[in-house]
Amino acid sequence: MNGFTHFNEDGQAVMVDVGAKAETRRVAVAAGRIVMRPETLAMIRAGDAKKGDVLGVARIAGIMAAKRTADLIPLCHPIALTKVSVDFRVDAEANAVECAATAETFGRTGVEMEALTAAGVALLTVYDMCKAVDRGMVIESVRLLEKQGGKSGHWRADAG
Description:
EC 4.6.1.17; alpha+beta; lyase; 4 helices; MoCo_biosynth_MoaA/MoaC; single chain; 29% helix; 160 residues; MoaC_bact/euk
């Protein structure tokens, strides 16, 4: 079969062979947000959650998840990450916490899944740490914002 596909000639799922691809610096940025009640956001900001530093723990969880992406996503290549960062921004007007995750490597395949996994798990961790006081939180808009490197070059999501 020509091109990259997760199926072999018999139609069975396989991991794509990236052995012939050039090693390049690859970067991906993903983001998402969790919307909550105003008092839940105030609790996070004040550091009063019973389970501890919500955003600090969520940051570590996101980084750890990026490192384990190949264990979570079928057919995803294990990647030696050179950098992972998970950052948060509080949007008080929307009663939300926004998360941005960046994953980097020097390799033969991209890190989009690692960035998306980091953002998603970080937001799930915020939910887990606050669910006792606000089960109605909503995780939304987890998406890829940007990717750099590889044969396809630079891609950026449309604003909006």
